Amino acid sequence: MKTRPIRTTLLAVAMVGTVPGTAHAVRIDYTIEAGVERDDNVTLAAQDQVEETIARAGFGFALEEETSVLHASVVGRADHRRYGDAYGSMTDRMLEGRLAWHAVPERLTLVAEDSYGVETIDRTAPGSPDNRQQVNVFAIGPDLHFGLGPAQRGIAEFRYINSNAEVTDQFNSDRLLASVAMVRALDPTRELSWNVRAQEVDFDDDFVARDHRRYEAFVGYAHRLRRFDMQVDAGWAHLDYDDGQTRSEPLLRAEFGWAGSERSRVSLALANQFSDAAAAALDRIGEGGGIPGSVGTGTSTINPYAYRERSAALRYEFTGVRLSASLGGFVQRLDYVDQAGANEEGRGIAAGLRYRLRPDLVFSTAASVSRIEFGAPEIRTETDRLYTIGLDKAWNRHWHSSLTVSHYQRDSSLAGVDEFDQNVVYLNLSYRNR
């Protein structure tokens, strides 16, 4: 296994501990757990399914720091599984976070971002243990802040970005990103900005992947009220390849949020933009909060190809004293600029519920269905369904035990590929420091 991805993620964590005078303000929540899992289809196969009892151990943490000098938000987890004859022992790892060190307050900030996790090697195949790889995208660089008047300010950002995949070498790249924004405060709740951004992408494997530059010019508008917030970027995007090919498209990124009450929120996200797997990984940093419950296998196609993304996602969340619930859906189309990348069109819906039966006992359930249509060179439709139920028992402030039952099913339209399902039962004992 390659060590390059691990070294870059450790750099982001190490920086948190090297900033003088901030260690005392760091808050770290963590969970240590051990358990046993019964899986009736470890290989995710349609025939000759392998059933195993798996010993598991895990460690997860969430780190938060916010002072006048340092802002850091990092989450991570490692899950170790001891399989039987099928795979032996394997450890999956993830780390995601952002660190901003204000070296010169209101003038110079050093920023580091990292997205490190597990993705499939073959996106169209099941995410069995032999079809998983560690993928890392790391970015570091300065933000320069400068004043332009009483109601205006400027921000110049520079980043070095490295992307690395354990198996898919074509994904590996080095990138340079530069952006300049002029921001004007219209009033205490509204901002208008003018932005230009340029990124140069240099792939390690120039035979498969094409080096290129990506340019964006857009106007941004932000409005933040107590119950409503919005952020809209609108402009133009341009791709310029070294072999002479170019492509331009309108650019739109929009997010809307409305809190109907103190306990509920509806959010809507829209996008029409150029992106790729590495850029999307950095964009997802900060989407989840708290200690990760497990190291999940991502749903991105890990390849070097740029694509045009058109997507919409709607989500509702309710957080009550005893009941918490969520419901969300998405539609997405990825049109790859390179013919070697198979276009994708997907849609899905997910729901979750958590209910406190007693002060020491919590019931939870979740369900999700997604349908992805893959284009040439291999046209197929994959439908995934996942259902889970669980109970969490608190023995005292620190010690908990959990029982989780899940059912996973995949259907494929490709001739000769049969559907399969998987049932997993997991019982664990965990220690939580808070």
TrEMBL record:
Natural source organism: Luteimonas wenzhouensis
Signal peptide: 1-25
Protein name: TIGR03016 family PEP-CTERM system-associated outer membrane protein
Keywords: Signal
Keyword Signal listed: yes
